[in-house]
Amino acid sequence: MRSDWIDLPPEVLGTIEAHTGPIRKVEPAPAGNHADVAATVHTAGGRVFIKAARKVAADTDGPEVRSLRNEARIVPHMNEFAPRLHWTVDAGGWLALGFEHVDGRHADFAPGSPDLDLLAKTVHALQVARCPEVVRMRVERRWESVAEDVSPMSGAALLHTDVNAENLLITPDGRAVLVDWAFASRGAAWVELGLLLPWLLKAGHSPAGAADWLARFPSWTAADPADVDLFSAVFAERWRRHAERDPAAWVVLHADLTRRWAKFRREG
Question: Residue of 17, 133, 146, 215 with fewest CB within 10 Å of its CB?
Fold first, then answer.
């Protein structure tokens, strides 16, 4: 459960304000689940977006802190795509990151939305970007508990791995900014598109319509169909197991969306 800004210890707040100056207003983020605290703060110098996570113990990072450390390591190499990281605070049993505030709205992935062109442009750019050495996660490891051989998903391409509508912000001047790089990985380029599929289905695309939309990406059309079938099956199975352990509404929905795609691959 996300914490409130007031849950931050005075030591942490003081260290944050050493970077920002006095904080005049705090707006909690309406979405996201990879930090204990996420908010836009208003200061004399402007707005800053802050994500913070509580450690398990003084010298022990929990999963949220580890994800923020991963993001802090990667984002400075992603200036083409991501908001700039201004500072990092590690104090009082918490890790906090201060990002450039992006004035934008969440993208709309619905069929016919003009935002789909911005999504395609962003994904095309990701597909040809160099994967920095600081990206250490290997995407295929996600499915090692489900399949004996996950090597078809391995590779050296840069993958954001969570290009959903809430993570793609559209600015008033029409730019697309991709946020939340906590789980950026390296792998086969086409896997990024496979991970995008549930979000297209959620936005109202049919499986066939989503497949048609993905056909614009060379990595997807060049992928071995057997590899895509394997990915689709293990993707659905992993989320099925996740939903059994955690029947939260969003988990159950994601499990159903991945199941629908796997069924389309089997029967198509």
Answer: 133
